[in-house]
Amino acid sequence: MKILKKIFSGLDKGLYYWDFGLMSAVAFVVIVTVFLRYIFNIVFNWTEELIIFLFIGTTYFGAILGVKENEHIKISIAKDKLPPKIKIAVDILISCINISVVVITAYLSRNWIEKVGRPLTPGLKIPYGVIYMIVPIAFALIAIYEGREVVLKISDFKKKI
């Protein structure tokens, strides 16, 4: 169990630093692009593409952090009125459904990327598949964090029995 805690601790730190790095890169590239465009009248066509791809990365990796921190949107009016044991059971069921959806999406998106990911982006000249791989990677990590939540909820459920 200590090994898992160390692995998740390292993964948590890595995700925070990665997302912070992506957001910092977006801010830096936007500032430099605006500065070059309006002060020196220099325009690079690849910078807009880079900003979009970095923003997509922050969105997906931010979603992972949202799941990790249990900050995703929930409508819990009915669930809040349930007894504690049933509430935990419903939470476990919802997490299992979430895991199923993200695993299926990750698998299907990976197969789709193999079929359509070869063309190059116009500005950066990298295969679209490199950018598209954000989806299965992010969804696999979401499944891992949801799985961790299921384990924690099951142990909490056992304590309340």
Automatic annotation (TrEMBL):
It is found in: Cell inner membrane. One of its GO terms (biological process) is C4-dicarboxylate transport. It holds the Pfam family DctQ. Residues 27-151 form the Tripartite ATP-independent periplasmic transporters DctQ component domain. It is a multi-pass membrane protein. One of its GO terms (cellular component) is plasma membrane. Its main location: membrane. InterPro entries: DctQ, TRAP_DctQ. Keywords: Cell inner membrane, Cell membrane, Membrane, Transmembrane, Transmembrane helix, Transport. PANTHER family: 2,3-DIKETO-L-GULONATE TRAP TRANSPORTER SMALL PERMEASE PROTEIN YIAM. This is Tripartite ATP-independent periplasmic transporters DctQ component domain-containing protein. It comes from marine sediment metagenome.
